[in-house]
Amino acid sequence: MTHELLTIGRISVDIYPNDIGVDLEDVQSFGKYLGGSPSNVAVAAARHGRRTGVITRTGDDAFGTYLHRELRKFGVDDQFVTPVKEWPTAVTFCAIKPPDDFPLYFYGRFPTAPDLQIKAEELDLDAIRKARIFWSTVTGLCQEPSREAHLKAHEARDRDQLKIGQFTVLDLDYRPMFWASEEEARGEIAKILPHVTVAIGNDKECAVAVGEGTPDEQADRLLATGVEIAVVKLGPEGVMAKTRTERVVSAPVKVETVNGLGAGDSFGGAFCHGLLAGWPLAEVLDFANAAGAIVASRLSCADAMPTPDEVTSLLAERGRLVPAFAGAATPREAVSEGAAS
Description:
Layout: E1 5-8, E2 12-17, E3 30-35, H1 37-47, E4 52-59, H2 62-73, E5 76-84, E6 91-94, E7 104-107, H3 125-130, E8 133-137, H4 146-155, E9 167-171, H5 182-192, E10 198-202, H6 203-210, H7 215-224, E11 229-233, E12 239-242, E13 247-250, H8 263-277, H9 281-296, H10 308-317, H11 331-340
Parallel strand pairs: 1-4, 1-8, 2-6, 4-5, 8-9, 9-10, 10-11
Antiparallel strand pairs: 2-3, 6-7, 11-12, 12-13
Helix pairs in contact: 1-8, 6-7, 8-9, 9-10
């Protein structure tokens, strides 16, 4: 199978409280969900009908079995998800205190986690080369052997040899607890950017990657590395995407926030759907922005990923532009697009 989206990196079991607005020590009950940003992005794109897969590692334990089951439930290919006997599956707790306080507590990630044990020699480079979109995150660069594996995967996708309709995406997902310093992260990011065609991050993440500055300055620095589309999230002002010939801004799609943690992953999966569909950049950005807003209004991440109909309904309700043919990719569409690429 040729994947329309193949992601690499973090996976975990997310333990989210059923009690909203209280500190973690006061929570009485929890729900269990699939988590981990690249895995959530694959789930989000699968909800839009895309053929997706994940390259990652779990522990050889019950939580690993659970994550395989969840990936299959969501229609995500798990053939590149294998167990690591030495380390337990990572678990992430959070407190949910809307509108903007969602502290994360990582367990089973120090000194390492199974998904940081992906080895370069284990990669299916042919599958990586053929994928229409290959998606990785900065977190996967934080330690070996994952760092070498990510670099080898990107080197297999020569940016100058990509076909029309192929993209290589770097999520600038910087999490300081996994790094010795911002300088260390910037050095590793610099090794990956020459292979990337799309970079996505918020102000802080872009600052770690290419230095402080205005959103336009940060986008221009990303473009100067050879990136074709630089996406800078503007917080309450929405999100901007910039190419060498175009600059578009999508205004925020306001909702009542329940849990903001999965919004960026929903944005990513919807953004990939729009890229694969070949929509104009402004339509891709609006669709992704609305998809992110929907998940922010819900409790969980993977389970909360919206369908195309839910996204287009929200866009229409808010008087925003709805992309033509914005439904889920059908088998016929997916086959024709795969042939075209």
